[in-house]
Amino acid sequence: MSEPARNDSARDVKQARDALLQGRIGDALDLVDRTRHDPDLDDDGQASLALTGLLAKLALGDLRGAASYSKDLVNLLRIHGRVAAAANFGLGEFSAARGLEDQAVAYYRRSGVEHGASGNHVWIPWRSGLALMIGGHGETVTANELVEEELAHARSLDMPYAVAYALRTQSAVAPTELRVGLLGEALDVLDGCTAARLDAQIRTDLAGWLLLLRPEESTRAIDLLRTAEKYARQEELTPLLSRVRWLLERLGEAPDGELPGRLAELSTAERRVARLVVAGRRNREIAAELGVSVKSVEWHVSHILRKLSITSRQDLADALAQPRQPR
Asked: What is the CATH code of the structural domain delimited by 3-196?
């Protein structure tokens, strides 16, 4: 095995993991696919790539794709220490995503044993996974103890991402009145840190609790969700995007994160008409809802099309409701 080959493999493994943490899910998968079968990979590299691939596929909602990486992780369970810790954690996440809670708990616990044996020098959030599982079944005291340990470990590593991750978990198992504060703290920790997916997840959690506990802060909740929506659509993260859109609907908002920006050059009256066009309303229905004549609606639609350089009503709906995102 040549030294340059080993260096190239290690570089690709690190870049794939960094891309995942930064929220560049597509880039992470590209790096994993390019390096996955490199014969120069050592056990650590194989475990890291398989875990990165599995977590990226779960972020996309692709259980079938994640299953392929889970097989790689199963083959690494025999290598005790941090390799087995990573493999067990990944299999715990995969089991949790499939609703196999008992299986997930067993994997998380084994990850903890292997992680402890390896010296805890790397970040593997098995405690968070376990806390979410048992906390959901009423073991809140133990769940909170696990998260406190997770938080202390993350801080000892001086890793903002890990700290924010632990705070997000803590918000899920803490008393309800503490959750908004914990999620706000998590966002503060991530300020200046490139972690787009975790940031979007925390924003979505926070918006959900604001909707439930502080309805007077609905504008803030919408702003949080619009940021999360834009990112989730760009990376095609179906599970996150579905949750964001569900919350937007509860807030009376259309799932159209780019709509405010695209409508900025329109008048107030034109924006109202455009939103109803996007919703699929006909001119007569729009006229009735807005209390204007059909001819007035027709004039507005024609003017909107000219302003936005769009040639048809369907193109208007497509452009405003489903904006194209850069890859």
From this structure: 1.25.40.10
Q: Where are the domains of the chain?
A: 3-196, 197-255, 268-321
Work out the mean pLDDT of the chain and round it to a whole number. 88
Q: Residue 283 corresponds to which tokens in the numbers above?
A: 């001119």
- CA dist 280 and 297 (Å) reads 14
Residue 323: pLDDT band by 50, 70, 90 thresholds? very low
What angle is formed at CA 62 by the lines to CA 237 and CA 132, rounded to 5 degrees?
Answer: 75
Tokens 């007077």, located at residue: 216
pLDDT digits (tens, 9 = 90+) for 97-111: 999 999 999 999 999
Sign of the CA dihedral running 102, 63, 94, 174:
negative
When computed from its CA atoms, the radius of gyration of the chain, rounded to whole angstroms, is: 23
Distance of CA 238 to the CA centre of its chain: 9
Q: Which CATH class is domain 268-321?
A: mainly alpha
- % the chain with pLDDT above 70: 90
